[in-house]
Amino acid sequence: NVPHYYLTIDLNLDSLVELRSSLNATMKDGGITVNDLLLKAAAAAMKTVPAANASWMGDFVRVYDSVDVNVVVGNGSALYAPVIRDVGRRGLAAVSDD
């Protein structure tokens, strides 16, 4: 059994949405999504608190250097769960391209 817990919070993302609009106004191709910004924020948090980027390995805790984030997205009829690799070291546009 892997220890786990559930956490629910409410967020005001008005500033994040404004940042997204400003960034997208400067881009020629594609665009940054709110999910892209949340991925980068999660990676920054895991770099700040390395214990949040760790796995229980049976008799020890392995703390990872890179931040790989698994995201579940759906389109109404199917779910996809891509792993976005090395989010902590890559730029926002590179994360968005994935």
Descriptive notes:
With 98 residues, the protein is an alpha+beta fold. Helix content is 34%, strand content 14%. A two-stranded antiparallel ribbon has the order 1-2. Strands 3-6 form a two-stranded antiparallel sheet. Strands 4-5 form a two-stranded antiparallel sheet. The termini are far apart. The mean pLDDT is 91.
Secondary-structure blueprint of this entry?
Elements: H1 14-25, H2 34-48, E1 54-56, E2 61-63, E3 69-70, E4 73-74, E5 79-80, E6 83-84, H3 92-97
Antiparallel strand pairs: 1-2, 3-6, 4-5
Low-confidence stretches: none
Reading side by side through the largest sheet, how are the strands ordered? 1-2
Q: Given the structure, what is the number of helices?
A: 3
Number of strands: 6
**Relative strand content:** 5-15%
Rg over C-alpha atoms, rounded to the nearest angstrom: 16 Å
Largest sheet descriptor: 2 strands, antiparallel
- The overall average pLDDT, rounded, is 91
Helicity level: 25-40%
Along the chain, the helix and strand elements come as: HHEEEEEEH
Report the principal-axis shape. Answer: globular
Query: Span from first to last CA?
Result: 32 Å
- Class based on secondary structure composition and strand pairing: alpha+beta
